[in-house]
Specification:
Blueprint (H helix, E strand, L loop, with lengths): L3 E7 L4 E4 L4 E4 L4 H8 L5 E9 L6 H12 L5 E5 L5 H7 L7 E5 L12 H14 L3 E6 L2 E3 L4 E4 L4 E4 L1
Parallel strand pairs: 1-4, 1-5, 5-6, 6-7
Antiparallel strand pairs: 2-3, 7-8, 9-10
Length: 161
């Protein structure tokens, strides 16, 4: 892997808590900071294109994501994305079949103690380097085909569709 391209779209992984508003908002992308703190042994570049909860990502956002990835030379792409519509976005990227694309996110914000963000990012980084070209989802310690996975909202995890 020459360089890992990371495209961020927001989601829980980047959420921050504002005491004065008593709610969450999507903040700056956290993945670059996380990878730097971990001292990874590969080059990466972060392109933040959207800063939304995935429930607010629409077809135009998905097309922007697809076009952004298509315009880059990188053959290894990691996308951070909210978990609620991650599967739909992964399916929308399926036409980019000449590269390995892995979507990941978090069920708890990366800034929170006990967040699954670092674990999911690590799983995604390993997957993007070892899988053949295609689109995948890395969540809950598993690599999923977007055509055969769903998010179980009640259990707060991904599982076979």
């Amino acid at each position: 892997m020459e360089e890992l391209l990371i495209v961020t779209t927001g989601g829980t992984i980047d959420k921050v808590y504002f005491d004065d508003k008593s709610d969450f908002q999507v903040g700056e992308p956290q993945i670059g900071r996380i990878l730097e703190e971990l001292g990874v042994a590969f080059r990466f570049r972060v392109i933040p294109i959207i800063r939304k909860d995935s429930l607010h990502i629409d077809d135009a956002d998905r097309e922007l994501l697809r076009a952004t990835i298509a315009a880059q030379q990188a053959r290894h792409v990691l996308v951070t994305h909210g978990t609620d519509t991650m599967v739909e976005t992964a399916k929308a990227l399926s036409s980019l079949d000449d590269r390995t694309i892995v979507l990941t996110g978090a069920l708890n914000p990366a800034r929170f103690r006990g967040s699954d963000a670092e674990f999911n990012i690590g799983t995604a980084v390993g997957a993007v380097q070892s899988l053949p070209a295609g689109v995948y989802i890395a969540m809950n310690g598993r690599i999923w085909d977007p055509l055969s996975v769903r998010k179980n909202v009640a259990a707060n995890r991904f599982e076979p569709a």
